[in-house]
């Protein structure tokens, strides 16, 4: 495995460079077979930024290599009623294809863990597609495991006016 010099920064939604990185990384994620395989429309992106700016619990983590943003974790702080403590949920984890298999995903996971420790969170949660074995292997190697008892990730859509 090649080791590259990585650093991370918390995403600032008011910074134009960070917004460009968010767009590029989200677009790459959406075009991926694990995404919806459709590009991110500029108008949708503007709506995404406006929506994230309203979320006081949003944490974006960008990974940088040689002045290029190469990975992103979109996270949200939540609260565990059982542990009576904050937690971080990783909603999206994106590594550009050219940087996969080079330790970037692991570095990103460890960066989120560092932020969780700094914020005194009790745990980090995430969901992963059942057909994304590569991501599952990374998460397992970083100490994640299926919940006990096992949980399902369910949804219902809400009609919006």
Characterization of the model:
With 161 residues, this protein is of the alpha+beta class. It has a single domain, classed as 3-Layer(aba) Sandwich (Aminopeptidase), CATH 3.40.630. Helix content is 32%, strand content 25%. The chain contains four helices and five strands; from the N terminus they run βααβββαβα. The longest helix is centred in the N-terminal third of the chain and has 16 residues. It is globular and about 40 Å long. The protein starts with 6 loop residues before the first strand and ends in a 20-residue tail after the last helix.
**Could you name the CATH homologous superfamily?**
Gcn5-related N-acetyltransferase (GNAT)
Q: Residue-averaged pLDDT, rounded?
A: 94
CATH topology term: Aminopeptidase
Number of domains: 1
Helix content: 25-40%
Instruction: Label the structural class.
Output: alpha+beta
Please give the CATH architecture: 3-Layer(aba) Sandwich
In the sheet with the most strands, the strands line up as 1-2-3-4-5
In quaternary terms, these chains amount to single chain
Individual helix count: 4
How many strands appear in the DSSP assignment? 5
Order of helices and strands: EHHEEEHEH
Q: Quick one: biggest sheet?
A: 5 strands, mixed
Distance between the termini: 50 Å
Under CATH at level 1, the class stands as Alpha Beta
Taken as a percent bin, the fraction of beta residues is 15-25%
Low-confidence blocks of residues:
none
Query: Any idea what the shape is?
Result: globular
